Amino acid sequence: MVHAERFDHILRVARLSREIAAAHQLDTGRTYLAGILHDIARDLPEEELLRLAPPECAIDADHPLALHGRAGRVLLERWGYSDPVVLTAVEQHTTGPLPDQPVAVAVYISDVSEPGRGVNEEIRRLAFCDLRGALELAICSKVHYLQGRGISVHPRTMSVYRALTERTC
Ligand SMILES: [Fe+2]
Ligand SMILES: [Fe+2]
After folding, report:
1. Ligand 2 center to 10 CA (angstroms)
2. Counting beta carbons within 10 angstroms of the beta carbon of residue 78, is it exposed (0 to 12), middle (13 to 18) or buried (19 or more)?
């Protein structure tokens, strides 16, 4: 279902997610599984993504790839998968997880900072001692980057940003 290079990325995400989970006494097996499943819908055709996860906003409609998190959740639910922690991590990995979902945060951080990406090393390092801090750095950097270029930020990402910046940034 996913391309070969994607599978290498998926494995790196799953392994890093598990390491971050272990550092914070989270459920490592569940976190690893969420990492393995996070891009389950990433290589589906756009029409399929739109069918599985109808757009919630103009950004979704203009960039169906942004739907692959929600679409992945729908796909897993259709296959009978029901663990809400894993489903939430899959769903939220594209637009960003809320800080009260640590397994989803571990997967999100791993997705943006796994070594194969060659970026965000600071975020990866920070995640081992301060998971929320790493999320703040990742989300704030993303929002500020997009806003600085006049690019619209996904409403779900803005919700996460607001949840984080009520007391920081
Ligand atoms: Fe993804
Ligand atoms: Fe990914």
Report:
1. 6
2. exposed
Enumerate residues 6+ apart whose C-beta is below 8 A from 46. Answer: 64, 65
Provide the pLDDT for residue 1. 65
How many domains is the chain built from? 1
Over residues 31-49, the mean pLDDT reads 97
For residue 33, how far is the Cα from the chain centroid? 14
pLDDT at 61 over 80: yes
Alpha helices by DSSP H, listed for 24-148, are 28-37, 46-52, 58-62, 68-78, 84-92, 102-113, 121-127, 131-148
104 Cα: distance to centroid of ligand 2 (angstroms): 12
Residue 76 domain boundaries:
4-165
CATH number at residue 90: 1.10.3210.10
- Distance (angstroms) between ligand 1 centre and the Cα of 168 equals 27
Q: What is the pLDDT of residues 8-32, one digit of tens each?
A: 999 999 999 999 999 999 999 999 9
Both tokens of residue 124? 């990866």
